[in-house]
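Quick look at the format.
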Amino acid sequence: MRKETAFLAMLTIATLSGCRRERLQESFVAIDNGLIVNALDETQSIVNQEAGNHGFAGLSNGSGEVFRTAADCPEVTFSAPIGTFPNTMTIDFGTGCTGYYGVERSGKIIATFTGPYPEAGTVITTTTEDYYVNGNLVEGTRTVTNMGTNDAGNIWFTVVTEGGHVHLSSGEDIYANINHEREWIEGAGGLPVWDDVYLISGTESGTNRFGIDFTATITDPLRRELDCRWPTSGTRVISTADHPDREIDFGDGECDNIATVTVDGDSFEIELPL
């Protein structure tokens, strides 16, 4: 969501009263759910990209060139020689670096691999250290496990995020735990990494910036193309106590930050965080 849009929405909430204010606050459940899930998902996208840039963990971008990064960052180091496992990759954005979709980042993403990414049984554990995205602190422990191939012949992963937390630059906090399955439907045998496409299913639970608890279920798998910050299609249903469910539709394949929310048969568009 654009900063000016967020400011206007917050100003509106501050000036409303009673059930109207509560209803508008509830609309932020969808926005905050998308914000925290995307922020944590992106850590894995960046880990895969940097693994590809350095020929690490069975990934390569195919050209030897660095994609989606600024010319002078991030700095990437390994705890052991390439080809040795377990191995920890540290991606250090320093005090500030603009790259990966034109977003400002600082701090570190730290990922430990037990084996090559495409190999069944490999576990990748990702944490962050003073990691900020556009001024928002992003925290959480993310465990990705390669489960081998499914009946369609595609590699699939379980993805569990515990202690997910975004501390917004405006001072509010968002929390979430995530249990996903990711099916690698395109790019598993080809290059570059940014051509990879996943289908995501599963659930999330957490608390939005106003302290409203939510649960979310992906009802139609979300299509995540690593060259796009947001899901390009799929639906998620978000539930909160004492209010109707919200269905979030991410569109028909176009890469944009627009989603459609439907509540009790009424639909409206929201802008997902940039």
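Next, a different chain entirely:
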Amino acid sequence: MPRRATYTETMSVIERRIAAGEYMLKDLPGERKLAEETGVSYMTARKAVLALIDKGVLARSESGTLTVAPEHEAKSAATTRVALLIPAYPSPYLTYLRRSVDHATVGKPIQFRAFEYAHWDDGIVKEALDGCDGVVIVPSTEPIPQRVRKALTAGPAKAVFLDGDLSELGVPSIRLFPDRHIRGLLDHLADAGYEPIHCLNTQGKNPEIDRRIDLWRAHILEHDIDGNLWDDPTPPYEDPMLRAHAAMKHIIKTTPRPLGAFVCTTQPAALGAMRACYEAGVEVGRDIAICTINNEPTGWYFCPSLTGLETPDFEPLLHPCFDWFASERPWKGDLIVEPVEIPLFIGESTTGARVTANR
């Protein structure tokens, strides 16, 4: 069977890129750059481009630059351009959020692309807000500058916050861990007889982290339980696990026994604390209880397994957001959107007993 012509392979690469939204916020490169990117000669890249122009996929502007042909965009089933802005930080949790948003677009008339941003003044933030119909934003712990806060509500793109709260500005916000479920986790510790119940935070501060700390503080006051706040926020885009490891080493050396229970605001803080306990010969689940408010999907697999609220399936909460992006109407309903139920996984880190479940 004869090998397919190289220029047709190059055509396929360009078409796949267009379908994946790679040129959603940027212009297509010229033939020389395309040749370099796809590993073919300039003449092969040029032949592929001319074929795509003939096919009605590409067009050439008066200035000579390549664009996606308006007729091709009109024919595309993807009629709504949606971007996900996610902090440029290596995290399994952020990867999970990214996959979930991507999966929620499947089968919908949406052209979707995820973009990482390194700070709020990163050019990609403005490009997404200027060039898309809708933008889903996972906020970093860096404070949002006033000019960016204004851009989030000024359009042209509609913005939704994911795992954050900017409802005060009228931005619809998907809050993954409602107050009542966090209180349920705290009730589990109190009902198990743990005292004191401390709070450990090494995540960079933002309104979401402040809310979790406030809920812990209100709970110990309401139930007249002793507890200290160990609050050492990590700078934006740095690893809170390392700082939690150092914090727990200090706590073990300076805190009288019994150590009680520690509610960690995030899973990385819990993991750093658990490692410090292991190194100090403090057995998690027997000598100390450690749990996390948001238990990432990996929590079950640690040894000991980590107690915490399981990350909910939030894809159904995204669908009304996508419909809103595609419409001309204002947002309807509550600005804070939350899942109805979130399972509390009780692991060995707060029981010391073997846990069995269908996994």
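The first helix runs from residue 6 to 19.

See the schema section for token definitions.
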